Amino acid sequence: MTLKVEQGNAFTIIHIQNDSVDATSAKEIAGIKDRMNQTTIMDFGPVMFINSAGISALLKLVIEARKQGKKLYAVNVTAHHRKVFEMVDMLRYMPIAKMEDLMPLISA
Amino acid sequence: MASDQLIEQSNCALAFSDIDIQIPSDLVFERVVRESAVFVAKYLGFDEERVGDLQLAVSEAVTNAIEHGNNSDINIKVGVKFYIRAERLAVKVTDQGHWVEAAHTVERANDDIDMETRLEHDMTRGMGIFLIERLVDNLDVKSSSTGTEFTMWFNLHKGSEPNDPVSFNIELQKADQHLN
C-alpha cells in the first residue's frame, strides 16, 4: 500500500508513503476520490520523484475534488515538485500549504 | 562508501567520459536509468533543482521509448547514453519506434487547451513531452527507418549559457564514432 488515509469528521489526510508517485501509485490515487472530505490534505512527505503518470492521477483527483466542492491542499512539497506542479497548472486546484496553517481547518 | 561521497571525490577531476546503458523494454528498468541520471547529475555538480529536472526528463523519455517506441517488447533494448562535459550533459535515448512525431502532434494540437479540458477528455497523452520541453535546455529528435533518437541537453544551470546544438551535435557524433 502506497497511501495511508487518516480521516476525521471534516477532513481527510492522505499520506503518500512511497518515494515515487508514478504509474503504480496512480492507480491507488484514482481509488481515493470517494474518500475525500470537505478539507483534504495530500502529504507528499517522503516523495522524491513524480512523473507524468503520477501527475495525471493527481490532476484528475484535484479536479474531482473541485467538482465535489471540496478543498484540497498539498503539504511537504519539494521546491522541484512545486515547479512541476506550476507547469501543469496543479496549484490552481491544489494550493501548497504548511501543515501548521491547516490545523485550524482540521481541528474545527 | 556512500554514493554522495564518491561523487564528491570524483568532482576533483573534470569528467569527459560517456556512459552507455542498455535496458530491456520493461518499465521496471526505467528506474535504473532514472537513478543513473541522478548520480551523473550530482557528479557534474548540478544543484538539486537541476537534478530533479534531469531525473524527470530522462524518466519521461525512457518511458516513452519503452511504451511507444518499443511497445514494451522486453526483447528490444532502449539505449541511453550520457555524454558528460564540464558544465553540460547530453542524454540520448534511442528506441526502434516512430512515436515522437505523433506525440508532438498531439502536444501541439493540445497547446491551447487548458489542463482541465484535457483531463475531462482524457487527453493526457503527450504530457511527458510537454514536461520534457519545459525542463531541458535543448532537444533534438531524429527519426529514421531504424528508430528514434531523442537527445536532451542540460546545462549546469538552466539557461546559464547560450546553447549551441550544432557544435555539440558534432561533439556527440565524434563521441559516438569513438565508442563504435
List keywords for this structure.
heterodimer, A: 108 residues, alpha/beta, Transcription Regulator spoIIAA, four-stranded mixed sheet, two-stranded parallel sheet, B: 180 residues, alpha+beta, Heat Shock Protein 90, five-stranded antiparallel sheet, 22% strand, globular
Notes on the structure:
Helices cover 39% and strands 23% of the residues of chain A. Chain A contains four helices and six strands. Chain A has helices at residues 23-30, 52-67, 79-87, 99-107; strands at residues 3-7, 11-16, 20-21, 39-43, 49-50, 71-75. In chain A, the strands form two sheets. Chain A has a four-stranded mixed sheet, sandwiched between helices. In chain A, α1 (23-30) runs parallel beside α2 (52-67). The mean pLDDT of chain A is 90. In chain B, α1 packs across α2 (30-44), α2 (30-44) runs antiparallel to α3 and α3 packs antiparallel against α6. The longest helix of chain B is centred in the N-terminal third of the chain and has 22 residues, at 48-69. A five-stranded antiparallel sheet of chain B has the order 1-2-3-5-4, sandwiched between helices. Chain B has helices at 3-10, 30-44, 48-69, 100-109, 115-120, 127-135, 165-179; strands at 18-24, 77-84, 88-95, 138-144, 147-155. Chain B has 180 residues and is an alpha+beta fold. The model of chain B is unreliable at 11-15 (pLDDT under 50).
